[in-house]
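Hey L., structure's done. Input below.
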Amino acid sequence: MKFIYEMHRMMLENNILLVYEGEFTQEITKSVLAMTERNMDSIGEESSIKRKVFNVMVECLQNIVKHSEEYVTVTKKVNTAIFMIGKHDDSYVITSGNPVKTVNIPALQERLDVINSLDKD
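Output:
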């Protein structure tokens, strides 16, 4: 119980609105969006800001569902990922990630390097 209280306190101190780690399905995606909307409503966020945040969230969540890699546990095949949204000053911080198989890291790193080397245009 102490661990849960400490984790909740840390989330409040860091303005983390939602963290979800596990399998992502269409239903879970809808739930994550609904919970975030309730959180943003409870703090009185403007509609225009909510719309922008939701656009980014939907893109991240679709990428999780589309690009997650299945792996096998002792009992079943699973797709797992993590999604987190927080607020820092006047900005929202959205973090998402999928596990990547070690064998796929070099090709992914090469693609990311190319993208990161491009200019704004």
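DSSP finds four helices and five strands in the chain. The beta strands are 16-22, 71-72, 77-78, 81-88, 91-97.

-- N.
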